[in-house]
Amino acid sequence: MLDQYQIQLTRMLEAEQYKEAKQLLRFLVQCQGQEKRHYEEWESLLDWLVMAFPDGSDNEESSIVESEPEDETALREQLLNPHNQDEAYINQVLYIMQHHPMIDQQMLALERIVFIEAENVNDIMLEWLKREDIHPMVQFKALQCLRKRGLTGGISIVRLEENVLLDIESTPLSMDDFPQQIGRIVERTEAVAEIDDPTLPHFARELWKESLQYLYGTTAYQWMLRDDDETVDCFSAALHLTLNLTLYGSANDDDIRDTYSITDAMRFRYEQACRSLRSVAMLLQTGEDEDQP
Q1: How many CB atoms lie within 10 A of CB 203?
Q2: Which residue from 158, 172, 173 is spatially nearest to 128, judged by alpha carbons?
Q3: Which of 62, 77, 236, 253 is most buried (CB neighbours < 10 A)?
Q4: Which pTM value belongs to this model?
Q5: Distance CA 112, CA 107 (A)
Q6: What's the rounded Cα separation, in Å, for the pair 282 and 201?
């Protein structure tokens, strides 16, 4: 469990989610039973974050949030879009997209490709996406890249061994872009999970976001879009179960089904949702292991 918290804290800091990082650190320093050096590290990091990024009581944090994004976005775009886009640069980025063994490097290449102006890039990407060995998260990132490049129309690809037909212009660019039903599922899980552990909603949202990137366009994703309470209950309960298994290594299935009112009539659909999300969690764990140097 400690390892999971450390990994999540690192991700928060890398993503500059300082408010969330401070919340997690405050939780960690209240925990009991860990080595003294851990508490010292957490307290030192928390003190630095509080000093560098004050809470919003004096409006300093809100002013940071309001003033920095535009500059950060411009800086990031400048890094991803170098002035000299010669043929060697373009070929290198495309090669990384298609052949690099590290998923993170492929994803970064796709971020760069958004800004490449060469006319043949779209055709190369569309042909590459016909391959069946592309990681699902890389596929999703590529679909986002194509949408940002202004492409429209349908594309037929294989995702998790399913043939799916997708509209490029409908690819969600953020969590807010997903249909309302998708948001209802994670919001229900967050509300329930927060009762047991105030840090769990963040973990739930991260797991849900990654699951969507895997399942987008598949049969499981289409089922999520059914606009009824039973579907929300089934997937919310399945997300909660998968979250507990991921973080703690165990989960009480009976308690979760009771909490989310999973009746006998809903049991089969709930178990289908569990299988879909647990398979994603296993793939995520495998992917993290493979990306380790």
Answers
A1: 20
A2: 158
A3: 236
A4: 0.73
A5: 9
A6: 20
